[in-house]
Structure formats: C-alpha cells, structure tokens
Amino acid sequence: MKITALLVLKCNPDGSDPVVLATAMDVSHFGYFQRSSVKEFILFVARTVGKRTPPGQRQSVQHEEYKVHSYNRNGLCVMGFMDDHYPVRSSFSLLNQVLDEYQKNFGESWRTAQADNMQPWPYLNEALNKYQDPAEADKLLKIQRELDETKIILHKTIDSVLARGEKLDSLVEKSSDLSAASQMFYKQAKKTNQCCTIL
Amino acid sequence: MASPYRDRTAEFRSLSQTLKKIGGTTTAVDQPNNSFVSPKPPNPASSRSEFNKKASCIGLGIHEASQKIARLAKLAKRSSMFDDPIVEIQELTALIKDDITALNMALSDLQTLQNLEIVEGNYSQDRVVHSTTVCDDLKSKLMGATKELQDVLTTRTENIKAHESRKQIFSANALRDSPFRQHAQPVTEPPPWSSPVKASESSQPSARRPAVDNAPSHHMEMSMLQQVVPRQENYSQSRAVALHNVESTITELGGIFTHLATMVAQQGELAIRIDDNMDESLANVEGARNALLRHLNQISSNRWLMIKIFAVIIFFLTVFMFFVA
C-alpha cells in the first residue's frame, strides 16, 4: 500500500498541457539511475491524465502497476500515483485534503502560473510520508479499524467474564457443600453433647 | 384493451322473446318450437360460446402478453452500464415469445374452428360476419403485440451496442499503450462523447459534492464521461457503505456491552449466593463450636460427679459383698 507520487497541477479548460504546481515523489524503490527517468515519466503521465480530466470530476486510471487517481476542482487538479492495494476512497479523501491545504496556503496565486513550479512544498512531502498508510488519510478507515479492535477486545472480555462465571459456579457449589457439611457437624456435636449429660 | 365488438346475444334473445310475445299467434307453435329449439340453440350456442370462450381466452392472453412487453420495454429502457438485468430481460423475452407462439397457434385453431362451424351449420350471415370480425380483430392485436416486441428488442440491441462502443472508447482511453496513441485518440474522442451525452442525463452530480459543483454542473453535463459516472457514484457509494458499516459496528458494540452487563449482573447474583452459603456455614460451625465447648466443659467439670458416682458404686459393691460374703 504505497503512494509513489502526489502532484498538484493547474488544468486549463481549453485542453492545453497542464502546468505543474507542486510535486512530491517517492522513487526510492527504483534503482539510482532510473530515478530521473521515472520522475519524467510520472510528470508526463500526470500531465496527460490531468489534461483528460474535466473539471469537477474524479477519475481513476490504471497504468501498468499503478493506479492514477485525479481530482479536478475548478481547474486545480490534484493527482496521486498509488498502487493497486491502496483503497480508492482513501486516495480521494487524501486528494481532497491536499487540495484544501493547497488552496489555504497559496490562495488563488496558482491561477496565474504559467511555468512549471519545481519548488518543493513541504506539506506535500510530509503528506506523502504520512499517508503511506491509508488509515491516516481516511478517517472512516481509521474509525472502522479502531472499532474492529474494540470489538476484538470486547470479545476477549466476554470470554474472560464467561470463565469467571464458571469459577463462580464452582465456588457456589463448594460453598453449598461446605454449609451442608458444617450443618452435619453442628448436629453431630449437639448429639454428642446431649448423650453425655447422663455421664 | 376495449374490444370493438360487443356481445349482444342476450339483447338479441330478449328482443326475440318480446317479438314472439307480441306476435302472439305463434305462441302455441312456439311451445314445441321452443322446447325443440331450446336444445338446439344450446348446441350452436354452446359451440358459438365455445368459439366465444376461445376468442376471449385468446384476447386475455394477448392482453397479458402486451403487458409483459410493456414491462420488458421499461426494463430495456432503464438498463444502464451498471446493474444490467440481462438475465431478467432474457427470461422475459423468452416467456413473451413462447406466449406469442402459443397465441398464434390458438388463433389458427380458432380460425379452423370458425371455418368448420360455417361449413357445418347454415348459419346466418350475421354470425359469419361476427366470427370473421372476431378472428381478424384478434389477429391484428397479436400482430400489434409482436411489433411492439420487435421494437423493444431493437431498442435493447441498440442500447447494448451503445454500451459496447462506450466501453471500447474508455478502455482505449486508459493509459496502457504507448504515449503516441494518446495523441491520436483525442481527435476521435469528442464525437463519441457527444452521442452518449444525450443518453446520459443527470444522476451524476447529485451523488457527489453539490456545493462545489453546482456552478460547473451545466458545463459538466455537456462533456460528461460515462465511465466516470459509475466511478463517482462508486466513490460516494463506497463512502455510504463505509459509513453504514461503521454504524452497524457501533450498534454491534452496543449490543456486546449490554450482553456483558447482563452476564456481570448474573454473576453478581452468584456471588451473593456464595456469600449466603458462607454465612450459613459460618453459623453452623459457630454453633457446633459452642456445643463442643460446652461438651468439653461438661466433661472437664464431670470429674467431680464421676468420683461421686464411683463412690456410690463402690458403696453398693461393698453392700453386695456384705450380703454374699
């Protein structure tokens, strides 16, 4: 479950090539010499998919072993390159978050950008690192996971309560035996007491 | 399906009765006539009513078949890219075809029956005309139903073809092949997009974020990707499903907690029982201890009495010995 890259592009509605606004890539699992070509490749694919995504649409495209998820909102397009195991919904919620963050940070200045902006945006980099685990990005997934854990814990609790119940059952039996035995003891003592008064 | 012909046999009969009554001279002749005629009209009446019965059966069957065709038409129109009720449609089509063939055969039987009747008895012209009209009517209705079925099947095949072409477009759109193909693709893409636009109307923006997308929604509807619609619905649907799961998990957890509380309460009762048993045994043991203590005291204080008793025994022994010795 890996995110390989996150990109923010400005998509023009007239269909020309989108302008790259911010990128964060994790190409550490490729060999050293392949990294630059992989980066170029990612940029190219992102541009193409961004060009094809109409505004206000979410799109997921399968490309070799990656899924490219893109979300275009009012001309600002954010894309994520994830592998097949990453849940689609989490990826889109992550893209939403990145989009909101970008708009909060940069306001509307991206609309005038014409050239690719290669300056790193630290939020994107740390987002890439933090959200390798889809549960971080998607609150729903996190909640579901925690609820499942709680359910498991509760099941264990119930099992131990059942064991406690069994022990309490045996204690009840033993205590009732004890009380019967003590009753017999009392009667016996009274009997011996009564018959020795003659002597 | 209001039948254009009406069965006025009853009217005719009542009219003839009244006419006979009015023409009173023939009443005496009519008695044997009636008794003679009355077995007879049941015969043609029965065969005529048999003809009528068959015709009404066929009419009913045609009506049912046309209802089924209407349902099929609705299904075929409704079918979209996702959840296509193919099996249902095919079943329904097969059923309708069987019905229509059966109705055809029944209609041809009716035709032969009618011809037989015409040849058999010298019926009046009215009856012949009536029966031919009935047959023609049923035939035309059956033909209308068959034509409707044809139309529905054509629309269905058109739908399927449109789906296939859309699927092909979007499978070619995926970035699987070399980059060069993608430059060639956009030229051909806009025309196929324009045709699905008319078929695909709303349903897409309502499921997603309406607050954001209301402004470009009109622009969206013009250039809508059919493949994206199920994807976006999938997104919101998956969110809805996830929320549903979370909600059901939370309810389950609540149930588990209640279960736990019940069990702990029951075990609390058990603990109380144990407590009572222990108190009882404590009381018993306490009583026994006291009894034994008294016993001990009695035994320890009994020595004095025992000396006295032994003294008495020794006294009796000596008295006894005095007597014997």
TrEMBL record, chain A:
<dbReference type="InterPro" id="IPR045848">
    <property type="entry name" value="R-SNARE_YKT6"/>
</dbReference>
<feature type="domain" description="V-SNARE coiled-coil homology">
    <location>
        <begin position="139"/>
        <end position="199"/>
    </location>
</feature>
<dbReference type="InterPro" id="IPR001388">
    <property type="entry name" value="Synaptobrevin-like"/>
</dbReference>
<dbReference type="GO" id="GO:0031201">
    <property type="term" value="C:SNARE complex"/>
</dbReference>
<dbReference type="Pfam" id="PF13774">
    <property type="entry name" value="Longin"/>
</dbReference>
<keyword id="KW-0175">Coiled coil</keyword>
<protein>
    <recommendedName>
        <fullName>VAMP-like protein YKT61</fullName>
    </recommendedName>
</protein>
<keyword id="KW-0449">Lipoprotein</keyword>
<feature type="domain" description="Longin">
    <location>
        <begin position="7"/>
        <end position="141"/>
    </location>
</feature>
<keyword id="KW-0636">Prenylation</keyword>
<dbReference type="GO" id="GO:0006906">
    <property type="term" value="P:vesicle fusion"/>
</dbReference>
<comment type="subunit">
    <text>Interacts with SYP41. Core constituent of the SNARE complex required for membrane fusion at the trans-Golgi network.</text>
</comment>
<keyword id="KW-0488">Methylation</keyword>
<dbReference type="InterPro" id="IPR011012">
    <property type="entry name" value="Longin-like_dom_sf"/>
</dbReference>
<dbReference type="GO" id="GO:0005794">
    <property type="term" value="C:Golgi apparatus"/>
</dbReference>
<dbReference type="InterPro" id="IPR010908">
    <property type="entry name" value="Longin_dom"/>
</dbReference>
<dbReference type="InterPro" id="IPR042855">
    <property type="entry name" value="V_SNARE_CC"/>
</dbReference>
<dbReference type="GO" id="GO:0005886">
    <property type="term" value="C:plasma membrane"/>
</dbReference>
<dbReference type="Pfam" id="PF00957">
    <property type="entry name" value="Synaptobrevin"/>
</dbReference>
<dbReference type="GO" id="GO:0006888">
    <property type="term" value="P:endoplasmic reticulum to Golgi vesicle-mediated transport"/>
</dbReference>
<comment type="similarity">
    <text>Belongs to the synaptobrevin family.</text>
</comment>
<keyword id="KW-0472">Membrane</keyword>
UniProtKB/TrEMBL annotation, chain B:
<protein>
    <submittedName>
        <fullName>Syntaxin-31</fullName>
    </submittedName>
</protein>
